[in-house]
Amino acid sequence: FFPLQALGDKNREPGRLYDLEYESDDEAEEEKVVQNPSKPSVKKGGLGGMFGMLKGLVGSKSLTRDDMDPVLEKMKDHLIAKNVAAEIAVQLCESVAKKLEGKVMGTFTTVTSTVKQALQEALVQILQPQRRVDVLRDVMDAQRHRRPYVVTFCGVNGVGKSTNLAKISFWLIENGFSVLIAACDTFRAGAVEQLRTHTRRLNALHPPESHGGRTMVQLYEKGYGKDAAGIAMEAISYARNQGFDVVLVDTAGRMQDNAPLMTALAKLIAVNAPDLVLFVGEALVGNEAVDQLVKFNKALADHSMAQTPRLIDGIVLTKFDTIDDKVGAAISMTYITSKPIVFVGTGQTYCDLRSLNAKAVVAALMKA
């Protein structure tokens, strides 16, 4: 085990969750528009070049649907190419058209730039969470009530639940909170051993002697083939008695249409009433992640025994570093469910955890 490799960026500020970054190419586009001063574009005394420059500009007129349709069609195709679900791309363009129809344009403003700006504003608004999830604040609130803050992770097989749970553990430890990991994936071979390895490595990075003799992360496990809901309940009780600040509950990966496993997950959530239920989806599969999220939410509602079933509270979007600028799944997931993206996984080290930056995602989405 090499601690420096596990940490990745050695110059980072410990405990800080950095914003997701993406460089926009708007400045590059602006540079292309600027004329080369050594090659004047307008001939002296000629009007042809001037009319060419003014082509496409709108001078104080009301926008009509006919003006916008060609631009909206291109925008829709662009969004679909960036992995936004087709029906969502259509709905977005329709809402932009309704917002702009009849609007009086200023002089020297192109229809394209106006539609693009309106679409960008709509996309940023979608990604801005209606309900902000501030995990650190909520953990401190739970501390004041002398109880552990409980987070349950769910999702389909292979999306990176255990890996990102370990990243979130590392982030919490660096913020001074002790973590108990509940190994409730009692189905997949090697699931408990994987968490045991992460626990050992996290303790190597943050040994008790660096925290006044306090063990900052511990694994609660009962092996395989046991009832996951029961293990979670025991882990939460153990955390309360031992003074742990946070319990992170790892669950078995399951397909959204597997009724027995979805019933078991609904039971785990209903019985233990976690503070936060996070759906872990990978950006790599694009719109398949949207379908998984919608069906998970519906399955939790259908299989819950409670009158007001507990549903998913937020999203962990993993493998974000594998998709280049095809970031449309982030838009689709938040648009369909109105659930905030709480964490973004971007790499293989414990420090590769980011918070969603709406403007950065939209910049990537609008990139040509």
Kindly describe this structure:
The protein is 47% helix and 12% strand. By secondary structure, the protein is α/β, with parallel strands linked by helices. It has 2 domains: 62-127; 135-357, Rossmann fold. α6 packs antiparallel against α14 and α8 (161-174) runs parallel beside α9. The radius of gyration is 25 Å and the shape is globular.
What layout of secondary structure does this protein have?
Layout: H1 3-7, H2 26-33, H3 48-54, E1 57-58, H4 65-81, H5 86-100, E2 109-110, H6 111-127, H7 135-144, E3 149-154, H8 161-174, E4 179-184, H9 191-205, E5 217-220, H10 228-242, E6 246-251, H11 259-272, E7 276-282, H12 287-303, E8 314-318, H13 328-337, E9 341-345, E10 353-354, H14 358-366
Parallel strand pairs: 3-6, 3-7, 4-5, 4-6, 7-8, 8-9
Antiparallel strand pairs: 1-2, 9-10
Helix pairs in contact: 4-5, 4-6, 5-6, 6-14, 8-9, 10-11, 11-12, 12-13
